[in-house]
């Protein structure tokens, strides 16, 4: 009997290496990014007030401010451009800014609820967590800005001057940069009220001094240097050039040498603040 057992054929898989069904490192990182990104997007659509406000707020802001300053807006060399046309690219950037503020405030809420601590304890890296939150918040910001851009024909935008690839690139990089800045600040702030205060001091002046509200042309004081060094200026000028062409930007005070620099500067802007957000997450829980 023992001889028969010893002579029995070995199983087909004997000696073959065991196949692991565990996902790889790259798959785990992508799963972390995808889950966090989709969670923020689904949360946005489950809040009807945010969806309605995404379209109503910028329209009212553009219409009221644009109408109020329409009679007093005069820029030499840009007589054919009214204030509503001038202000439209600034409102597009404002939508990206406000969306980044309201989307990244969820970082504070998720930390209070213990959700982020659970995610950080998982297999995903800190960079994957930051990218997931940044991409989700950026997608929401881009969606809101895209809804507002449906009114571009009312602001004098024509197909002849529209540069769609430049517009998309500038908006994507701007959204990532502003979201990264918001995440880097939100990670170090404990309360939502404190976060709003910090963002009002840090980001709103950047938008006001970006050429969104008033043109750089005619500003001769130290304020002009602040506006020239403001990285958000490249976002506003990039959107303006993509909508109205380079001539409109130059007539409003933008340097002709800025053309073509918007994308590299915004790319560096986004890389710095997304990296800063990843560093902040890695340094403190």
TrEMBL record:
PROSITE patterns assigned: ABC_TM2
Question: Where does the record place the ABC transmembrane type-2 domain?
Answer: 49-284
Q: Where in the cell is it found?
A: Cell membrane; Membrane
Its lineage opens with:
Bacteria, Pseudomonadati, Myxococcota, Myxococcia, Myxococcales
PANTHER family for this protein: NODULATION PROTEIN J (PTHR43229)
Q: How does it sit in the membrane?
A: Multi-pass membrane protein
By what name is this protein known?
Answer: Transport permease protein
State a GO cellular component annotated for this protein: ATP-binding cassette (ABC) transporter complex
Keywords (alphabetical) are: Cell membrane, Membrane, Transmembrane, Transmembrane helix, Transport
**Would the keyword Glycoprotein turn up in this protein's UniProt record?**
no
Q: Which Pfam families match?
A: ABC2_membrane
TM segments?
Answer: 12-31, 51-74, 86-108, 129-152, 164-188, 195-216, 263-281
Say which family it is in: Belongs to the ABC-2 integral membrane protein family.
Q: Which InterPro entries match?
A: ABC2_TM, ABC2_TM_bact-type, ABC_2_transport, Nod_factor_ABC_transporter
Q: Which organism was this protein described from?
A: Pseudomyxococcus hansupus
